[in-house]
Fold:
Amino acid sequence: DGGITQSPKYLFRKEGQNVTLSCEQNLNHDAMYWYRQDPGQGLRLIYYSQIVNDFQKGDIAEGYSVSREKKESFPLTVTSAQKNPTAFYLCASRTGRMAGNQPQHFGDGTRLSIL
Amino acid sequence: GEDVEQSLFLSVREGDSSVINCTYTDSSSTYLYWYKQEPGAGLQLLTYIFSNMDMKQDQRLTVLLNKKDKHLSLRIADTQTGDSAIYFCAETPRDSSYKLIFGSGTRLLVRP
Structure:
């Protein structure tokens, strides 16, 4: 089945540590996204990538980094510079076609907590 | 700027209809979406409407769009306990078709 796989489902970070969240899709989508979700709030865009080897900052990129070396993969690193990393992280993808409706499809998320 | 607002909470009795409301500020929005999020899970696309439509029906779901008032609603007929979840409204701005702007979500509780 085609879909988006995020791993791990739960992740714990120690003080001063970088951690990497995985996102893989087999939908042949060009665009991929990372969102952060805090309780009682909507989704906030961290980074997005519309094509391989290219990505742009979203609304809350500070303390995060990404890479897009392969079409199907868009890992997110939460660096030690992100002082409040506890949140639910969601990865999404969509086709790159510009005409018509192209909704974003979501993975099941990774919950990150500080130890 | 772009902003999407939703009420935070709705409680209905099983079998009743639920109506979840959303207002948005960007009059140039092209598509508007409803997503459902169950506890600990990602977002599931429920339905969407193009900005030149007023209504869309999909089984128990009815979406109404009032472009003049920038108001979007999702009606769920014969609401079931499995419909309990958080519902997000989202819009795609015309000048930023790669983006989705999300509301803060409405938590729907269905009472037996």
In short: Chain B has no helices and eleven strands. Chain B touches chain A at residues 4, 8, 31, 33, 35, 40-45, 48, 50, 88, 97-100, 102-105 (CB under 8 Å). Chain B has a mean pLDDT of 91.
